Each structure stands twice: as structure tokens, then as C-alpha cells.
Amino acid sequence: MWFWSHKASPALAVLGETKRSTHHGDTRWVRVTMTSLPPITRVAIIGAGASGLVAARALLEQKCFDTIDVFEQRSDVGGVWNYTPQTAPIRIPSTDVNVVEEPVEYVDDSGETRKVYVTAIYDSLETNIPKTLMRFSTHSFPASHPLFPSHSQVLSYLRHYAADLRHLITFNAHISSITITPVSSGGGWVLRFSTPHPPKTYDAIVIASGHYNTPFIPSIPGLTAWPSSHINHSLNFRSPLPYHNKKTLLIGGSISAFDIASRLLPHVTLPLLQSIRTPSPFPTPAGIKTLPEISAFREYGSVEFIDGHIEHGVEAVLFATGYLYTLPFLPHDNTTTGERVRGTWQHIFSIDHPTLAYIGLPTRVIPFPCAQSQAAVVARVWAGKTVLPTKEEMEAWERQRMEEGRKGTEGRVGGEGRGFHNFGYPDDSEYFDTLKGMVPRDGTGLEPTRWRKRERWIRERVAGIKNADLEAKERGVIVTRMEELGFIFEDDGKEEGEGEYYEKGREKV
To answer: What mean pLDDT is predicted for residues 202-225?
Structure first.
């Protein structure tokens, strides 16, 4: 068995031995201790999106679990990448973490009434991440796909990835509750469903249900006095046409908000108003008037900002303010604040109940490879090949993450609020290294993501590559490789994965 200690450097240690560890130049001896787990043979996975699928593969490749069941509330794999033209009712404000996601009814072309779980995909959405990074290590995107695939191409990729996993998946299965039973009663996790499925008991649970389900709309003075028909959230953004010739206020400064802004610009009454709480690292496109945080909604059409400025004549408000972490099927015991999930170690394991694991909590990461690394760790821990630190050490890690909040390249990293699960580059790359160090290279099972210098360089330049791609599209050029945009990696052969790399027209670095 192997063990990871947060006190040590990202390296493995044999269970039971005393190992020398060097951390920030300080050499010390660390005694290997562990959190013991009961035997795990039956595992359930909640969700068949990217995180749930890679979790299933990681567990399956360990070849030691008798039961691996995946439960998906939709009728197909893909999770958030399933486009739905339907939209959902929005609560204003929307701050309740105990909200249960409900499907929306619609009538199909044959006249039948059906139900669908709404996703935040809009008509023209494409990835903000090049396909060279946004992939699982075992499956590549087709070479013919554009460098930044469309949402339908990502869904097709996930369907292909799931081809040999479908026998594990039960579709149209909505979880109503997950409870843990006492050891005296046999132990385990009991799943109950709101759909016609009998309760089932498992030794361990992976929650991979995503965190783009429940919109976050802050409570702002005067907001509820406005007509709700003039207020929406990016969850329901499908196309810019409903905003045509309207004075529009977009609230939010995320990458997704700027992407939506680019769709709105040709249609709205200019300038497009955009309220941003913190200065953006991205240049402001022409046609956007940047405004600070909102202090109050006044009479309909008037919005006041914290600098005292008031905009009049606003006809439409679109919140691109993100989503809440919601886990309504777990006991309402402050598991989530909405801004983060409490009581986790390394954003994965429940500290109180390590047979409960989350895949996909981090934000501002490259999601597919991040989920793969997390899944590889979970599979090895539950297979008994890697062990966890003591509960006290895991609690210390969580406290440290809360206390060491700081400004990162893509928002706050660490802290008690949204920054807790937030990364950005290079923090996400370092997180991948941490997870890699928790997995023994024994040649068995799905490996964690292993980024070398090429991948790190691409990650650092994702925004620049995306901007260059958008400029190419404006010229009518669709590219499939970043080299076509002048982003070139040169391998000098000195060491595997290392070399020089540069952007065309610039000095080598």
C-alpha cells in the first residue's frame, strides 16, 4: 500500500515505514499513518457526465469491485453538455442551496409531453479550452474537429468515451436521498430514488453530479420589485435574439460572461452594460461599457452602482454570476455553503466519511484531465492500493486551504468562500502534480493526468490561443491545430516532454 501525507513533498511512501521528506528545503522524517476504510466492493456513481464516466472507467480498471453502478437522471450520457432548447424557471434571488433540481416539461414534435433537465448550453457555445488539453488521456478528439470544439462535438466525444461503459449506467434515475447506515446495521450508503427504482445499498459513493445546475442570483436591494420577465440567468441563455435592440445589463466577469457578451454585442443597443465586481484581466471589447458592482435596483429601468452612478432605461438584465454547489440528496447538515463543499480533503474525499468522494468540484481548471486525476486517486484508495492520512491531518489540510486564501491568476485561490475550490494556472497544474504523487506507478489501472512542459505551456496561453482563434474565425478561417495560429512547441530532445517553445513572431523563451 501507499500513502500520501500533506506534511511531505508530493511523493509516495510505503505504509508503515518512516520516510524522509523534504518540504520547502526542510528535511524531516514523517511517520506513515492512515485512515482505515472498510472493505469496498459495491460502488455507486451519481452522474454520467464527464466526471462520472471517468470515475466509472477508473474503478472498472482496478478489476476489484464486484458492483459499479452509475445513475444518471437524464436519458443519455454527457451531463451539462446535453443541449436543451428548453429553459427553466428562475428564482429571484437564487441563493437556496437546498433547492432540488426539477425537470421541465415540454411537448415534442409528436405531441407527447416529456421532461428534460435544463443545461446551460447555448446555440453557438464552443469550448474555451483547446482540444489538445480538454481530453482524457485515453481518448483524443478527432483531428478534423476544430481546435475549440462545439458543444455538440464535445457531447459526441463523451458518447464515444462512454461506449464501453454503458452497461454500468441506469438512465432516467433521479436520486432523492443518500443516507449512511450505522455499522451495527451493516453499514453502507443507501440510495433512494424519486423515480421508480428500488432503494440500493453500497459500500462507497462517488458524487459526480456537477455544479452547474442551480443558478446563483444574489439578493440585491430592489431586485424583486422589477418585472421578472426582464431578468434572467445565463443558465437560460440560448441566443442573443431576445435581447435585440434592447439596452442590456450583463452582470458578471467570468470567461463565460465575456463569451456571452461577445454574442450579445451585435444585437443589443450599444453600449452593452457589464457590471464586474473585480477588474478583469481580459481587454474590454469595443461596444462594452464596464461598470462596478450594483448597489441597488431603483424604479424599473434604473440601476445604481456602488460608485453612485445610475443607468436609466435598462430593458433587460442577464445574470452571469455562476452557480451554487447544491447537494439536495445529502442530509441538510451544512455540507455545502453554496460557495463550496465543506469537509473535503483535496477537494475529493469526505473527511468524516471517506467512502464518499466528489469528482469535479474544482473550478478554473481543465475539467476532463482534472476529473481523470481525481478518479484515479479515488479508485486506488478504495481498491486499497493507496491510503488516506488521518482524519486530523485531513482537517488540518482543509483549515490551511481556508486560511491561505490569496489572489490567483483567475480569481481568489483558497479561503472560506468561492475561492476554496478555485484554481487557475499554475495552481491547477500543481494540483495535478499533487494527485499524481498520490498514485503509485504500478502499471495497473487508469493513470492520473501527467502534464509535461508542453501541456503546461499550452495551459498558460489558453486565453491567447482562444483570442487568436476568434480572430481567425472573423476572417472566415477554422483552425484545427494551435500551430496554425502561430503557437508552436519545439522539442529539442533534451528530455521527454521538455524543450523550447515560442509564439510565432516572438523571441523564444
So the answer is: 97
